[in-house]
Every structure is written in structure tokens, then in C-alpha cells.
From TrEMBL:
UniProt entry keywords in alphabetical sequence: Membrane, Transmembrane, Transmembrane helix
Keyword hit for Transmembrane: yes
Cellular component terms per the entry's GO annotation: plasma membrane
Cofactor(s) annotated in UniProt: Mg(2+)
InterPro entries in the record: Diguanylate_Cyclase, GGDEF_dom, Nucleotide_cyclase, Rev_trsase/Diguanyl_cyclase
The enzyme's E.C. designation: 2.7.7.65
Catalytically driven reaction(s): 2 GTP = 3',3'-c-di-GMP + 2 diphosphate
GO molecular function: diguanylate cyclase activity
Transmembrane portions of the chain: 9-28, 177-199
Designated name of the protein: diguanylate cyclase
Lineage per the UniProt record: Bacteria, Pseudomonadati, Pseudomonadota, Gammaproteobacteria, Oceanospirillales
Single biological process term from Gene Ontology: cell adhesion involved in single-species biofilm formation
Domain GGDEF: 243-372
């Protein structure tokens, strides 16, 4: 259950990494789109407008050469178009995030151009009456044309420069912002990953502690506490399902002599071998435990006394044939066993006491036997 929860945490974390990456991808795309969009329209209009001063000079030159209807019409069209372009640029600039101080001088110059256009209009209106240019009108047209062309060319070129600089600043800023967002995101993911890793380690440590607290250190078998836990659950299951439950209590015979004759470490080795033998003889569903010293127990769920006796007999034979560590080769090892089955409405204490009494009887009757 806990493993599932821990796996769920990791799956959740990976999902979050995915969501963060998707969000970051979306942010990058949007940032690129917005950075480009803000100035692109303005630059496009400005590039178009920059054609106007050249066109004005060309048309005026042609008009001064031959003041015919075509050139007059071209000039009229320019006089109509130039204010529209200026107004368009003015709107763009006022809506932009540029500081007004940066573009105001150029806008003022363009406003001046707008204010001079009616004068130009009046002069060509006079010319249009008879398609004739007096020397005075010619001089006026030339001077006014040059003045407007220079003012337009200068303003547009300075604005163009300004937009390029602003666009470059914006790109640099977005670059830094993107880097900051990426670093923050990474830090967030690393921090969350670290916390998850810590939780995972804590969980593992708790599992290890729990395992150790329920395990006999020498043999690796379940300890008394674990057997009691398992017995409690087995009684509940047995009662619910109406199945029998048996217990074997096993005590090595004259184990003290082995310790005394060959030393405590060899005695430990014998205990470990005996533990492995019990595990080999019992079923997977049986709970094999070391109760302490040289006393062991096997809890047999779903088993009656006959099955427990059969297991006890198998163990008696196996122990007699169990090879002992080389120095104790000559010594024989036997075990006494008390066998009991839980009665109706019984509890583990009663079952244990009965098995213990029978173990005592087996000892009293000469050892190397099972009673029950
Ligand atoms: N090597 C080793 N010996 C242990 C351990 N725990 C208990 N013993 C020894 O087990 C022996 C038990 O001795 P007794 O209670 O007299 O029992 P016994 O000699 O087996 O005699 P019976 O049970 O009457 O057949 C003692 O010598 C304990 O020191 C252990 O973890 N390792």
C-alpha cells in the first residue's frame, strides 16, 4: 500500500515536470510572438512611409519641368497620402511602450510637415487653373518641396533607428526574462524532486526499521512480536472463514551442551541452520518465528492438529539428519515439539499455553519427540 503511494508520488511528480515543460514551451512561443508583433507593424508602416520623401522630390522635379495634369495629380495624391501615413505612425507610437521623450522631436517635425501641406496645396491649386508655372510659383514650389522632403526624410530615418534600437532592447530583455523563468522552473523542479527523494528515503528507512523491529537479528526469522501480530490476524481470519489454526512450539534439546562444548559462535551457527531447516519444512503460508534463545514456533493457518503433527514429524527427522558445523560433527542434535490446535472461541494465549504444556511433556518424556 505504502509502495503504491510512493509510486503515485513519483508519477505525480513526472506529470508536473511534463506540465511545467509544456507551460514553458507555451511561454516561449507566446513571448517570441509578442516580441515580434509589437514593433513589426510600426516598422512596416515606416518603411512604406520612407518612400514618400523620394517620391515627393521626383514628382516636384517633374512638375517644375512640365506642369501638366498627370504630375499635378501625382502631387495631389502625395499630399493626401502623407498625412495619413503620419497619423498612422503617430497612433502606433502613442500606443507603444516607448517613452514619449524618445519620439516626440520626430513627431513634432512630422506635425510641422502636416501644417505646411495646405500651403503646398494652395500653390498647386493655382498652377492647376491654367497649367502654367510663374517663376515665383516655381521658386515657392522648389523651396517648400525641399523643406518638406528633408523634414520627412530626417524624421522617418530617426524613427527607424529608434525602432531598431527599441526592438533590440526588447529582444535582449525577453532573452533575460526567458532565462530567469527557465532557471526558476528548474529550481522549482529540483526542489520538489529533492523533497520527493527525501520522502522516499524516509519511507524506505521507516520500512527498514519496521522490518528490523519484527525480525530476529541472528536468524532473520520473524520474532515474537511479529508472531503475535500474525497470530491475531490468523485468529480473526480463521473465525471468519471457519478454518482451523495450529501451533508448533519447538525447543532444541540440551542446547547448552553445544554451547559449552563448542562455544557460543558455533551455537549461533547451529541456531541459524535450524532456522533454515524450519523454513524449508514449513509451507509458505506458515509463520516461522524465533521466540527467544533456542525456542522457536510455527503458526499454521488453515491447518488442524493432524497436519501440525505431520509437520512436527518431518522436522524431527530432518533435525536428526541436519549436518552440524564441522567441529560439532560428532554431536547429535534433536528437538522437542509441542503441538496444539486452537479450539472454538480460543485465543492465542490459550493456544500457546497448550502447546507449551505439550512441549514440556515432550521434554519430560525423554526429548526428541512431538507431543500433542
Ligand atoms: N549460541 C547461543 N546460545 C544461546 C542463545 N540464546 C540462548 N542460548 C543458550 O541456550 C541455552 C539454553 O539452555 P537451557 O535453557 O538449559 O536448555 P537446554 O540446554 O537446551 O536444555 P533443554 O531445553 O532442557 O533440553 C543456554 O546455554 C543459553 O546460553 C543464542 O542466541 N546463541
Amino acid at each position: 500500500m505504502r509502495r503504491v503511494r510512493s509510486r503515485g508520488l513519483w508519477v505525480g511528480y513526472l506529470l508536473m515536470v511534463g506540465v511545467c515543460l509544456a507551460a514553458f514551451g507555451f511561454y516561449l512561443t507566446e513571448a517570441r510572438r509578442l516580441v515580434g508583433a509589437n514593433y513589426t507593424a510600426m516598422v512596416t508602416d515606416l518603411v512604406r512611409a520612407q518612400e514618400d520623401p523620394d517620391r515627393l522630390r521626383l514628382v516636384l522635379d517633374s512638375l517644375l519641368d512640365s506642369p501638366d495634369r498627370i504630375h499635378l495629380a501625382q502631387l495631389n495624391e502625395l499630399i493626401w497620402r502623407i498625412p495619413l501615413r503620419i497619423q498612422g505612425l503617430r497612433n502606433h507610437l502613442l500606443r507603444s511602450d516607448l517613452a514619449p521623450a524618445r519620439y516626440t522631436p520626430y513627431l513634432e517635425e512630422l506635425t510641422y510637415v502636416e501644417s505646411r501641406l495646405p500651403t503646398l496645396e494652395q500653390v498647386i491649386a493655382r498652377v492647376g487653373i491654367d497649367n502654367q508655372l510663374t517663376p515665383e510659383e516655381g521658386r515657392q514650389l522648389r523651396e517648400l518641396g525641399m523643406e518638406l522632403e528633408e523634414a520627412l526624410a530626417w524624421s522617418y530615418s530617426e524613427l527607424n533607428e529608434l525602432l531598431h534600437r527599441a526592438s533590440a532592447d526588447q529582444r535582449r530583455f525577453m532573452g533575460r526574462l526567458t532565462l530567469a523563468v527557465a532557471v526558476l522552473l528548474l529550481m522549482l523542479l529540483v526542489a520538489i524532486g529533492g523533497v520527493l527523494l527525501m520522502l522516499h528515503r524516509l519511507h524506505d528507512q521507516r520500512e527498514t526499521m519496521r522490518h528490523l523491529s519484527l525480525t530476529d537479528q541472528l536468524t532473520g526469522l520473524n520474532n515474537r512480536r511479529r508472531l503475535l501480530q500474525e497470530a491475531g490476524q490468523a485468529f480473526v481470519r480463521g473465525e471468519r472463514q471457519g478454518t482451523p489454526l495450529a501451533l508448533l512450539l519447538l525447543d532444541l534439546d540440551h542446547f547448552k551442551q553445544i554451547n559449552d562444548a563448542y562455544g557460543h559462535p558455533l551455537g549461533d551457527e547451529v541456531l541459524i541452520r535450524f532456522a533454515r531447516l524450519l523454513e524449508a519444512c514449513a509451507r509458505r503460508m506458515d509463520v516461522v518465528a524465533r521466540m527467544g534463545g533456542e525456542e522457536f514456533a510455527i503458526l499454521m493457518p488453515d491447518s488442524d492438529i493432524a497436519a501440525a503433527r505431520r509437520l512436527a514429524e518431518r522436522i524431527l527427522h530432518a533435525v536428526r539428519d541436519m549436518p552440524l558445523p564441522s567441529r560439532a560433527h560428532a554431536a547429535g542434535l534433536t528437538v522437542s515439539i509441542g503441538v496444539a490446535e486452537a479450539g472454538e472461541n480460543g485465543d492465542f494465549e490459550r493456544l500457546y499455553a497448550q502447546a507449551d504444556r505439550r512441549l514440556y511433556r515432550a521434554k519430560a518424556q525423554g526429548r526428541d519427540r512431538a507431543e500433542g
